[in-house]
Amino acid sequence: MKITDVLTRVEGHAAVELVVKDGKVRDVKIRFTEGKRLFELVVKGKFYQEIPVIVSRICGICYVSHRLASIFAVEDAFGVEVPEEITLLRSLLVAGEFLESHATALYLFSLPDLFGYRSAVEMAKDYPEHVKRALRIREVGNHIMKTIGGKTIHGENTTVGGFYSLPERDAFKKIAHMLEEIMLDVRETVTLFRSLEYPDFSSCHDLELRLDAEGFWQFSDHLSLSDGRRFHKSHYEEFVVEEEVSYSTAKVSRIDGKPFLVGPLARVRGVSSSNPFNDDLARALELLYAAERGLAIAERFAFELPPVSKVEVRPKKGKGFGVKEAPRGVLYHSYTFDEDGRCVNANIITPTSQLQAVIGENLRLLARREPNLAYVEFRKRAESLVRAYDP
Amino acid sequence: MHIGIVGLTGCSGCQCQFLNIYGGLSKLLERAKIDYFPLLQDDNVFEEFDVIFVEGSVTCGEDKEKLKLAREKARVLVALGSCACYGGIQASIEETACGHFCLPVSEVVEVDCKLPGCPVGVERLLESMAFLVNGVKPFEYPMTVCHECRINENDCIILKGGICQGPITLSGCGAPCPQMGVGCVGCRGDSDFPNYEAFVSLCESKGIPKERVEKLLFLFRRRR
Question: Do B19 and A108 touch (CB under 8 A)?
Answer without folding.
Answer: yes
